[in-house]
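tl;dr need the bound structure. longer version: we got a ligand (protoporphyrin IX containing FE) that a collaborator sent over and nobodys looked at where it sits. i said id run it. heres the input, straight from their email, havent touched it
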Amino acid sequence: MKKSITFSVLAMLWIVSATADNYYGLEVGYYGYACPQAESIVRWTVFKALERDPTLAPAIIRMHFHDCFVRGCDGSVLIDSTPGNTAEKDSPANNPSLQGFELIDEVKAALESVCPEVVSCADIIAFAARDCSYQAGNIFWEVPAGRRDGRISSNNSIPGNLPPPSFNVKQLTDIFMQKGLSQEEMVILSGAHSIGVSHCSSFSDRLYNFANTGAGDPTLDAQLAQQLKLTCPVTPPPDPIVPMETVSPSTLDNVYYTELLKNRGLFTSDHTLLTNPPTLKVVEISSSYPSIWKTKFAKAMVKMGTTEVLTGSQGEIRKNCRIVN
Ligand code: HEM
Ligand SMILES: *[C@@H]1O[C@H](CO)[C@@H](O)[C@H](O)[C@H]1NC(C)=O
């Protein structure tokens, strides 16, 4: 009797802990046997690259997001277009703004020389995004791995899966919910906009002709608008880039939220987070408590990394991240 009660309690605890961390078949330490050096090779290659070019940190963090939201985290964002097929990376949402493909190639080449055909391109992006967040924001998480690579990549999968910067809070919430992420996680992940750059074309409607009013967006801080106009033409091209957050543009931190509360978010999709009480609350907490935001960001990135993953015998381990086997 006593034994069976102990057993039931243990079984319940096991179920509770297993459901608390549901990684959809992914496992921390997945390459421990097949390629024990995998994660350190990724880290070493990424850290070396960031010394040369720190702008790769935001690029790779964004790449993980764009990979996961389109056909799941399956490395489909890395596949090159072919004569008959325009790939995801050549959609206007990614080309020319998405960077860092050569770094992923470099990591893949290093891994292939040590453990050929073992580590997926999708896992490389997930590891690299974690290492970039550590380097740029001192934020760390363990990456559940075992993703397999997809064989399909089409520019036609972008609409409806990647949110444009014109989206409002309802549209953003819906698209994140479709990916299994909550409204709170959407706000927490938007904090990635504390690092990196944007092309003027992603927000220039807010400077000159907002909602066809012939004037700028009245909810954009006037001083920031003035400053952005110095760089951004009325109608791109040319289409220069500006930092997305001006206080600490190369650090992944909670300053995004502090700036947002001053109407200094760059996109409509940033500003809109202030327009609804529950999302505003998350912005306020993230602005006031950096360590809470960091912890939640790490958790949300892990969750984002489980989106519609391929595991087991699904998909493949690509030999070259740009080409299906
Ligand atoms: C909430 C919906 C989101 C929208 C509408 C959005 C939109 C955008 C846009 C338009 C840009 C600038 C592209 C350009 O013109 O160069 C950008 C940049 C960026 N986004 Fe997002 N994004 C969203 C969420 C996220 C998430 C969830 C992450 C990662 C967790 C992320 C990470 C980044 C980073 C790091 C950059 C800078 C890239 C660089 O410097 O190379 N974004 N985003
Ligand atoms: C995808 O690319 C094809 C060929 O370049 C183009 O005709 C089509 O409009 C693109 N679709 C989207 C949604 O961008």
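gonna send this back to them w/ a short note. The domain at 2-196+244-304 is CATH 1.10.520.10 (Peroxidase; domain 1).
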